[in-house]
Design a protein that fits this description.
Helix content is 69%, strand content 0%. It is an all-alpha fold and 583 residues long. It has 2 domains: 387 residues, Up-down Bundle (Amino acid/polyamine transporter I), CATH 1.20.1740; 145 residues, no CATH class. Helix 2 packs across helix 5 and helix 3 crosses helix 16. The relative contact order is 0.16.
Length: 583
């Protein structure tokens, strides 16, 4: 196979015929409230009960409120892009589908393969945190029984947990049963938990603030560290990289696009409303925790319950613990809802085993994907340490969000129709008259120039981020990186501005393109650079497994590839028929 043929295979894009992007084997039964509460339910559990204690204790201290603001702003910028794609392509695959439409099959597979891992790790982390809260509520009876009966799994200082968490293991199976019973049933269960959890959070915020001690935020420690920034501003940024996972909820929301009644209106409204509500809650919860007790006394596993116990507020501790259990159960329902749908989207396109793409005739859910990935998910929760799981939470989300921002930039600056809607494209993708060397770009295929511009932008962002991550501002290497990064970023952005945009009015559109997606991409790249090296190593191992599956199975079974092959065969037959008639 020649190089250009390999490129055609790897970068072939998903197409929709007419209005078929709205057709689905699934049942379109979810309202705006249903979809919005899916996002809220998923974000509440992960952000408050899993991440807050860990980030306060180990990364940011009281500056976690800035971490939540930074990550919430970054999530908002990505949410604009998700809202546009969710309205135009309301499919279960979310970022995977958007990447397939905008960037091509190999990029879609990379994004699609990381999203299920993100959900599995997130679900496992929440299940273990649920178990920890319950164990704390019953005076460590569960952990003591397990250690006495089963014994230790490890020393608890590495990747594996101190003991096997059977409670988290079985909890994931119970939640999966509820999710497998149907989308509307799952949504109703989720909505009930959301109302309960919001009431508990309101109580916790008010009660926590009654113990507020603002001296915990002001002044310095004896070693000269700021009480508000005990880990410095870099700690707040590093915390934002981890906290960004807390906003993965609107990714879960996007996976419900194939089951929303009116996705063109539902997805954008639910996205922005849920994000606004959750951002306010996160900041208030982070403030109440860090004003109650010193950051270095925060329990990373059961932060709020332990804080109320230290203050002697037994009733508040019990209410908080019950609310935490309900909130994390809520989170597990939405996470378990989204996980099999992310897998189903890839299987339905033929990129992974088609058995995962089977929709059960009674429940109208991807039952096979639910069963298999719940088993994998439960094993993760059984043996891995909570902190090790938390460390790996954000990378897949940031990668997916970055790809969606890139796709918005590319699709807005191309000339051909991609969603089958009635659209006036004008001269989209053409270079403006002031752009130099237009003759050079005309020698390449259509769309290459905007892709080169985006690639240069990403390279520039990475060069800018490295000195901030490493703190090498003053030496020659840091200055060179900052100079190169600024030059590439500025020139690439100007080059993007030098492309005409197409005009689409059929659905919601991201405003201020390319400014908003480029800014969102900048923040995402910075946060990815701030993640630790082990997170990247684990990602590359997971991607290596996925690429093997894609090469051995996905390339040959891709429905988009089969569709193109049929077109090629049809064109060849028509060509031969035409030649025969001529002779």
């Amino acid at each position: 196979m020649k190089v250009h043929q390999i490129a055609d295979v790897l970068f072939r894009k998903k197409t929709f015929d007419g209005g078929s992007h709205l057709e689905s084997q699934m049942k379109r039964c979810l309202t705006i409230l249903d979809v919005m509460f899916i996002a809220i339910g998923h974000m509440i559990g992960a952000g408050i009960y899993v991440l807050t204690g860990s980030v306060v204790r180990n990364q940011a201290g009281p500056a976690i409120i800035l971490s939540f603001i930074f990550s919430g702003f970054a999530a908002l910028l990505s949410a604009f892009s998700y809202a546009e794609f969710g309205a135009r392509f309301p499919r279960a695959g979310s970022a995977y589908t958007y990447s397939y439409v905008g960037m091509g099959e190999i990029w879609a597979f990379i994004v699609g393969w990381t999203v299920p891992l993100e959900y599995m790790i997130g679900n496992a982390a929440v299940a273990r945190s649920w178990s920890a809260y319950f164990d704390n509520l019953v005076s460590k009876s569960v952990s003591n029984w397990t250690l006495d009966t089963v014994g230790r799994l490890s020393d608890g200082k590495g990747f594996f947990a101190l003991y096997p968490d059977f409670l988290a293991f079985f909890l994931l199976f119970l939640v999966a049963v509820a999710v497998a019973m149907g989308s509307k049933f799952s949504a109703n269960v989720n909505t009930s938990f959301v109302f309960l959890n919001l009431a508990v959070l309101a109580f916790v915020i008010i009660c926590g603030l009654t113990y507020a001690d603002f001296s915990l935020w002001s002044g310095t420690y004896q070693d000269g560290r700021s009480k508000f920034f005990p880990y410095g501003i870099q700690g707040a940024i590093s915390g934002a990289s981890t906290c960004f996972f807390a906003f993965i909820g609107f990714e879960a929301l996007a996976t419900a696009g194939e089951e929303a009644k009116n996705p063109h209106r539902t997805i954008p409204l639910a996205t922005f409303t849920s994000l606004a509500i959750i951002s306010v809650i996160y900041v208030l919860m982070g403030a109440s925790l860090t004003l109650m007790i010193p950051y270095d006394l925060v329990d990373p596993d059961a932060a709020f319950a332990a804080a109320f116990e230290m203050k002697g507020a037994t009733v508040a501790k019990i209410i908080m613990s019950v609310g935490a259990l309900a909130g994390m159960l809520n989170n597990l329902v939405t996470g378990s809802f989204a996980l099999p749908r992310a897998v189903y989207a890839m299987a339905d396109d033929g990129l992974i085993f088609g058995w995962f793409g089977v929709i059960n005739s009674k429940t109208k859910t991807p039952l096979n994907a639910t069963i298999v990935f719940t088993i994998i998910n439960a094993i993760l929760a059984l043996v891995f340490d909570l902190q090790a799981l938390v460390d790996f939470l954000s990378i897949g989300t940031l990668l997916a969000y970055s790809m969606v921002s890139i796709c918005v930039i590319i699709l807005r600056h191309q000339s051909h129709l991609v969603d089958g809607s009635a659209t006036d494209y004008d001269n989209g993708g053409c270079l403006k008259s002031w752009v130099p060397f237009q003759g050079v770009w005309e020698n390449f295929s259509e769309g290459i120039s905007i892709r080169v511009a985006v690639a240069g932008l990403i390279f520039g962002y990475i060069c800018l981020a490295i000195p901030f991550r490493t703190g090498i501002f003053s030496n020659a290497g840091g200055i060179i990186l900052l100079t190169v990064g600024a030059a590439f970023s500025l020139l690439s952005f100007v080059f993007i501005l030098g492309h005409e945009q197409n005009k689409s009015t059929s659905t919601y559109k991201v405003p201020l393109v390319p400014f908003i997606p480029c800014l969102g991409l900048l923040i995402n790249v910075f946060m990815m650079v701030y993640l630790n090296s082990m997170t990247w190593i684990r990602l590359f191992v997971w991607l290596a497994i996925g690429i093997v599956i894609y090469i051995c199975y996905g390339i040959r079974h891709s429905k988009e590839g089969q569709k193109l092959s049929k077109i090629d065969v049809h064109n060849e037959i028509m060509s031969r028929t035409s030649d025969t008639k001529v002779h």
